Amino acid sequence: MPSIWEPLFGIIVLLALAMTLGSIAERLKQSAIVGFMLAGLLLGPNVLGRFVQWFQEKQSDTVITGADAIPPQVPAVLRAMIDPAQITAIADLGVTLLMFTIGLEFSWSRLKRLGLKAIATGVMQIVVTMAATTAIVMLFNLSFTAGVALGGIFALSSTGVVMPALARRSEVDSVHGRFALGILLVQDIAVIPLVLIIAALGGTGTVGQVVWHTVGQFGIVAGFIVCCVVLVKYVVPRVVAFNAPTGNREVTVLFAIVLSLGAAWGAHKLGLSPALGAFIAAIFLGESAIAPRLRGDVGPLKTIFVTMFFASIGMLGDPVWIVQHWWQVGVALGILLLVKPTVVWGVGRVFKLAHRHAIAAGVCMGQVGVFSFVLARSAQDGQVISEQMFSLVVSITILTLFLTPYLVTFAPTAGAKGERLLRRWGLAKIGSGVDASVGRELSSHIVVVGFGPAGRAVANRMYQSGSTVVVVDLNPQSIKAARDAGMRAMVGDASSPELLKQVSIDTAEALVITLPDHYLAMAVIVEALELAPKVQIVVRARYHRYVDLLTRTGANVVIDEEANVGDRLSESLRVKVSTDSERDHEVIKEEATAPGGKTETE
Predict the structure, then answer these.
(1) Transmembrane segments in this chain: where (predicted)?
(2) How far apart are CA 511 and CA 505, in angstroms?
């Protein structure tokens, strides 16, 4: 009779090794994901499995191949971990559960706040990357359908890896971080049509039959989405209301999990990807009334889902295959790391993003994403790509996910060096918003870099006090607002020496930098001191950890945002407590002196 305990013990061993290697990776200042994938690689069929096979061959003096690759003498614990069929099942379950948690965190409101420009940017990046990949693939005598499939696979990046890496470096609010976030959110939602397109590429029959089948698939997805919306909008609120008097959180969470896993099963029965079904259900569930509670309660489970997914991806990796096909892997990896960042940089320039930030965002996104595994599995099932090509995709995915923490770390430096190189070649200009008359006849003026809430506050106060204020910002709308307020203003990147010359930084009394991006602030400080060594520089530090760094770079005054918030909170609390205590004292005093009132001695 089959037992679940041996496979369960195998999963326990996998999670334990993933925890150990993930902790070691974190201690070495790397992403824990590197440890998770390494654990899967070591315990998978291509490392542990080969060792078991070699050991059995030594014992029996026979070569074990084909169906006998896992001999019957192998314990069930190891069999569950090295059996390719088991690994495939674990990988499919892992990606389904992970896409459920990613869908819960997907924010329609955040996408709306980014605006149509961000959506257009993301769509353009996907289309251009697919077109470029298809052209390159066809140069290697592969089919057009394989090119389109690989284009969709390589067009996607990993939100779940890039954003935590940016967060660890406090760069989510940087210019290149926000630009990357907009593209990543569009990529997340684009996986839905991409799965259907790749499924259509594997269709057989006449062109008309394939088109009709594809239209039918889109219709099924549309109906599936309608069902999810109805459930979330009408069924979920009733379940929440029914369960509210009991205050039992577990029932609500169980209902949400049943709904999501049921969506995965329903998608499977409809001929769609189960992972896609879980994702669609989760993104609508994430907008429901129980979403905040659900994210909190599912949080610990997300750790298991993420670990299982990346470990399962590691299990699919084959070091021997990579070594045997090193030149194919090397060429594919090199093309990806060159083409994809170049596409992101080009798209950024189309939307007037400075070279520095567009290059940095491109470097951050130079990897194959989590959703790419869903597309690759769909392409393999539809025979759009071969088994060898699937192995190449898995190898590239693993290698680029390994490289991602390093790419994110290197991105700001790459952006700065790339921009300097383009300037040397005469390809980088200040920008289309430059007004050469802005800096004319200026002396003892204040240059304010960044016109967000902090920049507006300081610029308005200095302007009202009679100072001449020059505002520099990348956003044309912010510059228009500054000009409407009567200030001089210029669109552009303040880290550009040419722009600093235009605002007469050498004769300025002070330079105020209100940017949340500490790397960009440091670049502005360095360039400003090169042109005006005596200018007084006041800079905002979003996080306390960067105060000393900004000071050493050359800032005269650094405003510590975290320390100031702590001071304001403590002061507000002191005033509130003091006011409440005085009010209570007055009430007690009034009661004690009122007719018939009693004092404590009475």
Answers:
(1) 6-25, 32-52, 85-106, 118-140, 146-167, 179-203, 215-236, 248-266, 272-291, 303-323, 329-351, 358-377, 389-414
(2) 8
